[in-house]
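Hi all, long-time lurker, first post. I run a small reading group and we've been trying to get comfortable going from sequence to structure in the token notation. Rather than ask abstract questions, I figured I'd post a concrete chain and ask someone more experienced to write out its structure so we can walk through it together at our next meeting. Sequence below, copied exactly:
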Amino acid sequence: MSVVGWVMLALLLVGAFLAALGSLNRTFYGASTFVERYLTAVADDDIATASTTPGVALDAEELAALGLPADVSTAMFRSDVIESGPEDIRILSDVALPDGSHSVTASYRLDVSIVETTFDVRPLPPLYGVLSRWEFSVSPIAVVDVTAANNPMFTVGSLTLDTRATKRGDELAAFTQVTPYLAIAPAVYEFGYTSPLLEAVPTATPVEPSARTAVAVTSLPTPTFVERVQVQVDDYLAGCAAQPVLQPAACPFGIEIDDRVVGEPTWTIVAPPLVTLTPGPNAFEMPPTEGVAHISVEVQSLFDGEFSQVEEDRPFTLALTASIRPDGSIAIQLM
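-- Answer (accepted) --
Happy to help. Here is the structure in token form:
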């Protein structure tokens, strides 16, 4: 083969290589494929891949711009936390901009809604100097502000989190906690809580890219919680009834009798107050609730010396607050 032939062949090979390289950069290494891979990683619950995709992580400056602390929690960056990811992913358009960046619009189903999102991506230095690389210009990470009412704990997916984890001082004692969390998006998360004493109805929450979403997890007492408080109330009233006096100390019932008491007063609880609990500012509260005690005692009239038996029901009311101690026991405070 002549020199000219070899040159032509070389040019053809170079041209074929450049064409193949261009095709790879438009497809496998293209901006739209970059976005599609990210969405597929979220859909596959591959959180390690999704969270390390270039442009996903937020630096200190970006966190500050969002009004977030530098130690904002990334605890939700785990597998088995997402309830469901994007489905039926399709790239609708890929628009190249003059500065070399691209606007890629994707369509996907999130829960029961069809969502369209435009992702802005920009080029990174090419791999090996020839293969295109990309990063998100704006991170798709979402912020979820969790309001944990009446209980600092909540669950999301398989994870149980404490909203007080990064708090200090007086903030730790708040009955309702509000804490921001970073979350991979787009995805659907299910927030709730279940324990022997407290339960919050699970709520499925769609979270879209680069969005800020508020979620309320409201824990309420379970029947077990109410039963345990009822036991404490009944024990307290039994202690009151065991005092053989007309005015049991530190108790909600008593009686004044003008005649001479000649026998030991005997108290019984006819109807204890039935415990109901609702959230208050700082604890669960039982409003003033009526109960009935009964007094039985022999007396002698100061007027004519006649002996008689006093049998009388004495209505009373009882109110209290109830809270859960760190060891899981219940503390009640009579009001």
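A couple of things your group might point at:
The first strand starts at residue 82 and ends at 84.
The chain has two domains: 17-220, 223-334.
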